[in-house]
């Protein structure tokens, strides 16, 4: 009975959430009785959020996720859904609390308000799903997770633009940094956890859910280089070559989404610096060099360019969100951010100009937040008028000393 009711609601969900993501329309919300109960303005009636925000979420180690992988009778799907059913609302409650702790003038920004409402809506949808006891329930819940993922894919521009618009009202830089670090790593974690669950249903060679059991850093870097070279050619008509050395034959279990963001972002910065610094010299562009190093605990990638480096005054700013030496004009589309998957080659082939080499000031701080989330770090060494080395460190899933938890 409860599930039938929920199923009817579920069929309407993508439309409901999409309304919210696209445009904040007060009329629409009021028209829909159900939604009118769960907006930001009904702040005081949301005790479930307050209660769950007091709980700690359970961050799983991917190694545990890998070993509890698959059972022939699909019990693993049930266990995975039950975990998400309990944990996702707690994580969402924490993020909603973060919105509530923002200064009033920032929280009132229409784009941030829209995002806040989106989170509340998802929270209520996931939290009100009845307990999952059978594989039938699990199927319904999985459909809900897929819809949640689809509906949330366009939320990054809201976050980026919302904070850009409210920047002039912000007095405490650390507040913004902490909020954005948490919000971005939350997006990453939710995406990985949901995708892992969805992938558990499929049989893909060398994969357990989202975890690739023989991840090759070299192959991953080569794919990123191909993408960034195409983007660089489309932007400047020229692109540097790349060498890859070090532990090129290494492979180990890993989850690709964070590196699929970090590596292209760091390559884009190195390519841009190289092209812009040497453009006028008419000579051949110096190569960008990537070195791979793997030990028992971490994967370390060094990306070295000869793109003129940075003065130390600039180096202090690059970790700030929205800092860019290539400020985009205001008329630039707000839907043009690089996100986990939207840098696919076919989009470039269609000459989609949405993707840019630089300009938002999100590449470095987001990559650093992701590295730290994976028990690693992102550091820069730069030599003015020479070039820059970026060190990307992430903990290995198999490490006993640096346990990574999602
Ligand atoms: N390898 C590098 N060489 C020289 N300058 C760099 C390098 N990497 C980063 N920077 C400087 O740091 C700034 C911030 O980098 P970040 O990647 O965060 O933003 P962006 O590249 O301007 O925009 P986007 O968000 O699109 O990546 C850049 O604008 C650039 O000035
Ligand atoms: Mg960048």
TrEMBL record:
The keyword RNA-binding does not apply. It is found in: Mitochondrion matrix. InterPro entries: AK/P_DHK_N_sf, BCDHK/PDK_N, BCKD/PDK, HATPase_C_sf, HATPase_dom, His_kinase_dom. Its main location: mitochondrion. Residues 259-398 form the Histidine kinase domain. Keywords: ATP-binding, Kinase, Mitochondrion, Nucleotide-binding, Phosphoprotein, Transferase. GO terms for biological process: regulation of glucose metabolic process. GO terms for cellular component: mitochondrial matrix. Its EC number is 2.7.11.-. PROSITE patterns: HIS_KIN. The keyword S-adenosyl-L-methionine does not apply. GO terms for molecular function: ATP binding; pyruvate dehydrogenase (acetyl-transferring) kinase activity. It is an enzyme of class 2 (transferase). Belongs to the PDK/BCKDK protein kinase family. This is Protein-serine/threonine kinase. It comes from Rotaria socialis.
